[in-house]
Design goal:
elongated; 6-stranded antiparallel beta sheet; about 350 residues; Rossmann fold; 11 strands; 2 domains; alpha/beta; 5-stranded parallel beta sheet
């Protein structure tokens, strides 16, 4: 099951890791590498501990005798610890009194990812090694393996998370913060993004797109809004929906406020505003809301649709204003309502 369908489980894990992080357990996460010369660094581990292989680079096969050597090593290996004869193996070790508890929780967290998402996580470092080898020896056949155990997947994701938030820190031997706190931070990112990373879906210039619908919402409602967007995509097509995660690269720029207001005010046929207590408090929502209010002021009311998650007041929204109640209707229903509203714009043409 992909992450976008795992919102409830992510929040359950968030609560569990938050509770354990608050206890400041004596626990640490570190990495070490094993070559033909032995482990690095070579140190005595704290007891209790739990080690797991993350990934392994076997080497490059360039001749028939090397192929036979690989097959022999494969048959004689204990695959829990990888292949014999590997040039480089990466291991993680959890040490401390709460080691067993963390392992159980991490196994559950690692099960969040479907096969494709797990492959994205575990292949990041391995792909770098393989690409480097192929650049130096184009005719070679470099081999690498990754551990598909949920514990290894979760630890690889923690390192992947560090590489995005603190580049370079994931290469340290001693990983900070402690694994409970790091897991909490990583889960907070997952709860917001519901994806491994932020990847633009569009190569079109944002200023030149005429959107059929634009989503304005607080981050707390992203999981619900993402489901609405996913339900709309098959019907509306590419570059028809303004949803911020689809245009991350182009939104990373100065004067973003003016660009967003232009998208909502002038580049979108319909603006769907997801109202809640948090919407009234967020700065970026406030900027988007100014564009929406200008549309309302121009009496272009058909261009605005309200979806409510609660009854908290929002300046400029009154009791006489109609809305869809998200407490009653699911994301698929809201997507259907949006499609029906858009049909009215098509009828005008």
């Amino acid at each position: 099951m992909p992450l976008r369908n795992q919102s409830a489980e992510i929040h359950r894990l968030l609560s569990a890791f938050e509770a354990e992080a608050a206890k400041f357990h004596g626990i640490r996460l570190s990495t070490f590498f094993v070559t033909q010369s032995g482990p690095s660094p070579n140190r005595r581990l704290i007891s209790p501990n739990h080690a797991v292989m993350l990934w392994q680079y076997y080497g490059s096969i360039r001749a028939d005798h090397e192929t036979q050597r690989f097959l022999n090593n494969f048959q004689e290996s204990d695959l829990q610890w990888g292949l014999r004869g590997a040039e480089l193996s990466s291991f993680a070790v959890i040490e401390g009194t709460a080691c067993d508890l963390f392992v159980r929780m991490a196994l559950r967290a690692g099960s969040l990812f479907d096969e494709e998402e797990a492959r994205t996580i575990t292949s990041r470092v391995v792909d770098e090694i393989l690409q480097r080898e192929l650049a130096e020896h184009p005719s070679s056949k470099p081999l690498a393996v990754t551990n598909g155990n949920p514990l290894a997947i979760w630890l690889n994701y923690l390192l992947y998370h560090l590489s995005m938030t603190n580049p370079g820190r994931e290469r340290s031997y001693n990983i900070e913060p402690d694994p409970f706190s790091l897991s909490l931070l990583a889960l907070e990112r997952l709860a917001t993004d519901l994806a491994i990373g932020k990847i633009d879906r569009s190569a079109s210039l944002l200023r030149e797109i005429r959107f059929k619908v634009a989503m304005s919402f607080a981050g707390e409602q992203r999981a619900y809004v993402a489901k609405v967007v996913d339900a709309l995509r098959p019907t509306l097509g590419v570059d028809a929906i303004f949803y911020d995660h689809d245009y991350q690269a182009q939104l990373a720029r100065p004067n973003l406020d003016t660009l967003l207001q232009d998208i909502y005010r002038n580049q979108s046929e319909l603006i769907v505003v997801f109202l809640c207590a948090e919407y009234a408090e967020k700065q970026w929502c406030g900027l988007e809301w100014r564009a929406v209010r200008d549309i309302i002021k121009s009496k272009d009311n058909d261009r605005v649709m309200f979806v409510r998650f609660d009854d908290m007041p929002v300046d400029g929204v009154f009791s006489i204003d109609g809305y869809i109640d998200a407490r009653t209707f699911g994301a698929q229903d809201v997507a259907s309502f949006i499609t029906q509203r858009l049909a009215r714009f098509s009828d005008r043409r």
